[in-house]
């Protein structure tokens, strides 16, 4: 009995929920969370937060674009999200003559709001548990690709059945590595228009230097508007469309916050791997993360060398650079945090506890005995393949653009489109593309890939480079870009017009084919077999962890998978190191302290500087401190995809927008660190101050419900 008690005590540490850890499923709030949330100060009920029968707070939270969150803030369709979430749209509309990235943008009247093709906003309609319907058709003996094929077939049936006769879209998502399944139903609006953005000197203040860091002084927000048909339904862009009146929009709090105040975030976190094994973490660090660090670092150096001397290139590559650098720095921080915090050893201790739990019963041994051994064997055997695949994807497949563009153009031409439609689609592909930049990038990508992988992972053209160009990557790049018809829009347009496009001999197409041939070679039969074994073992491992959690009576949450979740916590600072204490908010004083005139990251616009020096903060100043707050901290549990998520107070009023995590806890996608992990939020009062005093957007502010 004593031995069993010790094992269970160890398991409580393993599966128990720490502090404010957790990205919780909305339909389960009543069952798992509401008592604790109310005890921390929340005044709402579970049904006030999520209901598929009546209007609830979830109806104000949206999926913004393809990877962010936003919040409805007016009954006329206004959406607040992060500046970096709206960055693609802002860049799309920018030019040298109208540089909205540099100067910001204010739609002075409704008709000035700019349609943004390709941008959408999705509202969550309902969530439904469909686990039994799927699991009942997936016996434990069904494994590998056969299980995946059957699962996907069942999912498609449910999705089509749900969508039939509606204007909704349906997605079934696996949870706990395929131990549970939930159906998510959405209503999507595709007429979304650009209404306001601060200049990048505010919206991206601090740039890459401050990214993932605290203290932070970034006004990371932008404003869009959702439009619909006159009858309130989703519709393609039309001049006859009208602002959408949502079921629910968030009221805004102008009252601020104190340490220990309840804070709640709803959003769409991308992916976490909280139940990943020690072997999986090692693979993540030395394969996925290290490839991002090495390849993106080299690519970004090339891009930046062109961007800093040419405004047009800077505009064209701004969004690409931001997407690349975000998870480049994240990977650096994650690897450092995993090492510093000893996370692999923590995971090994958890695995040891799991093995001890398995030994407590013959039934468990029969089911879980080989799980850990299979994970270790699978990850160990697949490591060299995974490393090569990650470096190939980051560099030669996705790091250089022109060969990929050639493949896209080839696909479009094969559709036999009309001349006008063909030209339109090809022009879209070449938008924001500069061959001089890409040619220099290719040289860097060839070099970094060669240095990072074994000889048997090199495409055939490396032999050509060695034999014909004596190993000179620059000369090979000159040949490729000089001879290919796909180097520029002008060249391919002329070649198509003269009917001289020869896909079989074009060097860019040949380059792509050789890269993909290498990709398929790395994805060998052994690699695929081991990958399937890992996937099956991870599903079984999480099944065991769920069983352990149930025995200890502790609630357990699933990993993030780009579906709406709730995380609750408190406002507060932290102590990242000995004798270092971080306050829970920053002020405009810090903007001037960081100012570096003319610097691309820390320049302060004259208008903002004047407002700060004159303390022209209006009603948005914090009444308790007498200062203009910029950003604040909370201990909510978030990850990528939560960008733009609303952070609410105990009454469900908007305090600000989540936009980042902190450097000391970059391992947060793998392990939640309660003493270190913090969410960085832009204060809604700073948003209002910038819109009002800097942007002159009083028309938009008048739509808001400010309390």
From TrEMBL:
Keyword Transmembrane helix found: no
EC number in record: 3.4.14.-
Pfam families: Peptidase_S46 (PF10459)
Enzyme superclass (EC): hydrolase
InterPro entries, per database record: Pep_S46, Peptidase_S1_PA, Peptidase_S1_PA_chymotrypsin
Any coiled-coil regions, as ranges: none
Keywords attached to this entry: Aminopeptidase, Hydrolase, Protease, Serine protease, Signal
Single GO molecular function: dipeptidyl-peptidase activity
GO biological process entries: peptide catabolic process; proteolysis
Entry annotated with the keyword Amino-acid biosynthesis: no
Role description: Catalyzes the removal of dipeptides from the N-terminus of oligopeptides.
Protein family per UniProt: Belongs to the peptidase S46 family.
PANTHER family the UniProt entry points to: PERIPLASMIC PEPTIDASE SUBFAMILY S1B
Name of the protein in its database record: Dipeptidyl-peptidase
Species this protein is from: Paludibacter propionicigenes (strain DSM 17365 / JCM 13257 / WB4)
């Amino acid at each position: 009995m004593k031995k069993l008690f010790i094992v269970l005590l160890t398991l409580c540490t393993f599966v128990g929920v720490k502090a404010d850890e957790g990205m919780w499923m909305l339909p389960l709030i009543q069952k798992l969370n509401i008592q604790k949330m109310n005890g921390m100060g929340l005044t709402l009920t579970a049904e006030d937060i999520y209901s598929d029968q009546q209007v609830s707070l979830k109806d104000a939270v949206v999926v913004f674009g393809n990877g962010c969150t936003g919040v409805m803030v007016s009954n006329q369709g206004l959406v607040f999200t992060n500046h970096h979430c709206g960055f693609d749209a802002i860049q799309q509309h920018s030019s040298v003559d109208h540089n909205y990235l540099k100067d910001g943008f204010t739609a002075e009247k409704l008709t000035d709001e700019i349609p943004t093709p390709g941008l959408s906003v999705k509202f969550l309609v309902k969530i439904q548990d469909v686990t039994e319907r799927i699991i009942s058709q997936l016996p434990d003996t069904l494994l590998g690709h056969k299980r995946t094929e059957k699962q996907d077939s069942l999912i498609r049936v449910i999705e089509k059945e749900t969508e039939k006769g509606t204007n909704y879209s349906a997605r079934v998502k696996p949870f706990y590595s395929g131990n549970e399944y939930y159906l998510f139903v959405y209503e999507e609006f595709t007429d979304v228009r650009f209404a306001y953005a601060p200049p990048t000197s505010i919206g991206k203040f601090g740039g890459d230097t401050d990214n993932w860091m605290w203290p932070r002084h970034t006004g990371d927000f932008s404003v869009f508007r959702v439009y619909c048909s006159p009858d309130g339904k989703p519709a393609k862009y039309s001049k006859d469309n009208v602002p959408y009146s949502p079921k629910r929009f968030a009221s805004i709090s102008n009252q601020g916050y104190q340490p220990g105040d309840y804070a709640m975030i709803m959003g769409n976190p991308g992916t976490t791997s909280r139940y990943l094994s020690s072997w999986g973490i090692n693979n993540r660090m030395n394969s996925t993360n290290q490839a991002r660090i090495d390849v993106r670092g080299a690519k970004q150096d090339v891009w930046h060398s062109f961007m800093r001397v040419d405004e047009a290139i800077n505009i064209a590559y701004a969004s690409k650079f931001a997407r690349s650098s975000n998870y480049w720095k994240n990977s650096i921080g994650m690897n450092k945090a995993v090492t510093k915090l000893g996370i692999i050893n923590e995971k090994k201790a958890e695995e040891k506890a799991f093995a001890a739990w398995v030994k407590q019963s013959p039934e468990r041994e029969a089911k879980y005995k080989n799980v850990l051994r299979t994970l270790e064997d699978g990850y160990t055997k697949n490591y060299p393949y995974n490393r090569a695949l990650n470096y190939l994807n980051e560099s030669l497949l996705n790091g250089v653009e022109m060969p990929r563009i050639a493949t896209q153009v080839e696909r479009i031409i094969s559709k036999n489109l009309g001349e006008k439609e063909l030209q339109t689609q090809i022009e879209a592909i070449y938008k924001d593309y500069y061959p001089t930049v890409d040619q220099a990038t290719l040289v860097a990508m060839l070099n970094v890939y060669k240095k990072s992988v074994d000889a048997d992972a090199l495409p055939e053209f490396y032999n050509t480079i060695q034999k014909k160009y004596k190993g000179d990557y620059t000369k090979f790049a000159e040949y490729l870009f000089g001879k290919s018809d796909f180097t520029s829009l002008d060249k391919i347009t002329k070649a198509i017009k003269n009917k001289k496009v020869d896909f079989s001999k074009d060097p860019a197409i040949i380059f792509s084919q050789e890269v993909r041939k290498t990709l398929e070679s790395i994805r060998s039969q052994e690699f695929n077999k081991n990958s399937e074994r890992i996937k099956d073992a991870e599903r079984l491992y999480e099944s065991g962890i769920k069983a352990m959690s149930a025995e200890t009576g502790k609630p357990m949450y699933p990993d993030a998978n780009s579906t709406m979740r709730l995380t609750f916590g408190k406002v507060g600072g932290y102590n990242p190191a000995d004798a270092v204490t971080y306050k829970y908010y920053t002020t405009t004083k810090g903007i001037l302290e960081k100012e570096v005139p003319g610097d691309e990251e820390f320049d302060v616009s004259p208008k903002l500087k004047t407002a700060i020096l004159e303390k022209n903060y209006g009603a948005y100043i914090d009444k308790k401190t007498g200062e203009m707050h910029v950003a604040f901290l909370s201990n909510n549990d978030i990850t990528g995809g939560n960008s733009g998520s609303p952070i609410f107070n105990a009454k469900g009023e908007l305090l600000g927008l989540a936009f980042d995590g902190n450097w000391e806890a970059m391992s947060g996608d793998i392990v939640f660190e309660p003493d270190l992990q913090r969410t960085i939020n832009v204060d809604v009062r700073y948003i209002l101050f910038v819109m009002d005093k800097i942007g002159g957007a009083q028309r938009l502010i008048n739509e808001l419900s400010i309390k």
